[in-house]
Design goal:
The protein has about 300 residues and is an alpha/beta fold. Helix content is about 50%, strand content about 10%. Helix 2 (about 50-55) links the parallel strand 2 (about 30-35) and strand 3.
Amino acid sequence: MDRDVLVLTGATATGKSALSLEVARRTGAEIISMDSRQVYRGMDIGTAKLLATERAGVPHHGIDLVEASERYSAGRYARDAWQYIDDIRSRAKPILLVGGTGFFLRALTHPLFREPELPASRRASLEGYLQQQPEERLRLWAALLEGSASVPGDRQRLARIIEVGTLSGHSLGWWHLNAPPAHTPLDARVVVLELPRAVLYERIDARVLDMVQHGLVDEVRALRAAGFGEADPGMNATGYREVLAHLERHMTLADAITLTQAATRRYARRQLTWFRHQLPEGAVHLDARTPADELATRIVQTLMWEEVAV
């Protein structure tokens, strides 16, 4: 067991970020984001990033790494996260992995294959080409490379399948089966925040409204003015694609809000399904309605972090 690493996860809107600050301040931990959308610069409101003032005094890693036009894979996350982990361990600090992106967590607990080196110039050229292609064409191309009738996944996954299969000479599936793992598995303590479904949905709907009130439309407008559009990986995030459609006069703001709320609820359901089947044994499940001070105390006591508290 990696006694210095705690994973704090749960569905969107369960209060992970606020609780992580309290736990980190009590223990001296440094936080590594485990959120696939908070890696994007300029995407703050719609990804529920903590303000810089809120993060003050608690080192955070894995936030604001790439532009909205860049893809950020689970493999890249694992490489970056292990660098953060090694760096934090060199300072003898405990580590908090915080977020609800299940495939990022799995990339650490069940390491992906060691990715082949792909020619940077050819990869950049191919990425630019793929961004201009309709998703259905990408899906057909990916299925052909994988020798499958169909391939599930979003544009980001389809593009990765095409890149690896085209530039390495072997399909992504072949690499999964034949390449050695990139890292040793992370055996961390896991805490899951939970809410009754009705309460979770109420929080999600309220948070979307709060994001709009605090400038989500202006944030998307600024990204659009900077040249980012619906084909860019970051702009596929829930909330951004709906508001982008509103700005391009495809729908009213009210409709964009309603669609964002519905899409976020669907995402939460997928997260809950993932947590039921993919979390390691021994995960601690806590009611997110419990006051943050009490939750932090229970986490520190239950996981025996007193040994590393500052």
